[in-house]
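Q: Start with the shorter request: fold the first protein.
A: Done. Sequence, then structure:
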Amino acid sequence: MYTIADSSKTFDSLCQDLEEAVKNNGFGVLHIHNLGDTLRSKGLTYSEECKVFEVCNPVQASKVLAIDVRLNMALPCRISVYTDRGSVKIGYIDPGAMLSSLSSDPALVAIAEEVESSMLNILQQAQ
């Protein structure tokens, strides 16, 4: 259900390279949530770094919404860059697994497979 990879890059470098890989694969970055900074700004102790990138391929998203508008709640895709005890990681929840848990429509399965292939390309290019 999860695709996670270790990276030898620094956290900041991986974040920068992820943004470029997203664009190179026909997706756009809609928003970046800096969870580490948010938690620390609320007075909580959090020693790791974590950014969640909301990414979207508008063509694929429109296909999903045309089949079942309720799936807007599963969009956009998210890719996380984070640290875990000194390791820098990048990962996402597999679109196919997520959508198959919400719908059994064969058209959605095909779209999810295409998106998942793109997400893997993005991860590998950024890594």
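Q: Next, the second protein, separately.
A: Sequence, then structure:
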Amino acid sequence: MIDSYPLLRPWLFSLDAEQAHNLTMSNLDRAERWGLLGLLIKKPSPDPRTVCGITFPNPVGLAAGLDKDGKHIDALGALGFGFLEIGTVTPKPQPGNPKPRMFRLPAAQGIINRMGFNNDGVDACVERVRRSAYWQNGGIVGLNIGKNASTPIEDAASDYVSAMETVYKVASYITVNISSPNTQNLRALQGEDMLRSLLSALHLAREALSDRHGVRKPLFLKIAPDLEQNDIKLIADLLVEFGIDAIIATNTTIARDGVQGLEFGEETGGLSGSPVRLASTKVIQSLRDTLGDAIPIIGVGGILSGNDAQEKVAAGASLIQLYSGLIYRGPKLITECAAALHKR
């Protein structure tokens, strides 16, 4: 099977990063509708993993951010992912930050973005999930939720509870995103008092939703790579205390290690891709050392090869997620990572 992405990438990289993303997703949708993806994409072999009561067809998932609104679920599902995470979605629609807001750093295989949770709102996303054939046929779709930029940080819990209530019926699992650097003060939610208050509100809301719907949906927390060891220990303790089912490590970094002096290297926003790999893996290892086997870890950050996927699992991750690596490697990366983890 011919890997055409290396031929397309120079042309895509000649375009604005956000424009190229939208164009790629539109063409991916078109190829899926025409039935071409099955001919062009070699899917991973089945390699089921059961985590948090969910049996994932393989351990390689899509990270949140690539499909913020659930507009491309069927096309992305056809690429062979074991699961998709959609979002971040917020209770009300919002445009996000001004453009340009996404920048490639090819020399470092990195991306800086300051998108700012641009999305059509949680109601629109949930309706798209319901309409997708992937979801209707049992595909695993996680919903990643956040707060609106206009909501004061002290009222953040109300936004997260509202979004959770809306996504609860359709989500295979729900991820609470408190670690994006692109919404003002959001990372303050990783501090002890605010995190305790947020997790307490989410715990109570989930108990009520579980009773109402007769099913307890897994709740995940996504954290930053820019945490000190004491912060990691604190978060780990709170996860256990409030019954959070898994942790996603990590989001983008505000550090600029490895990109100093590069074009766009000083742009504000979160840095992802290869430059965040080691920081992400270090957080995973610290979490595993702290938590033992109490809570599963989903590893994400700088996975651009099968070896990188193995590194995350060796550090303590049960599953992995891809995003920036897809921009540099294309869909072949999914199968490569799945094959590398299948060997384990």
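Q: Describe the second briefly.
A: The chain has one domain: 44-343. Residues 29 and 72 are 6 Å apart (CA to CA).
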